[in-house]
Amino acid sequence: MIEIMACPGGCIGGGGQPYHHGNMEILKARAAAIYREDRSKPLRKSHENLAIIGLYKDYLGEPYGKKAHQLLHTSYTGRKKI
Question: Where do the structural domains in the chain lie, given as residue ranges?
Answer without folding.
Answer: 17-72
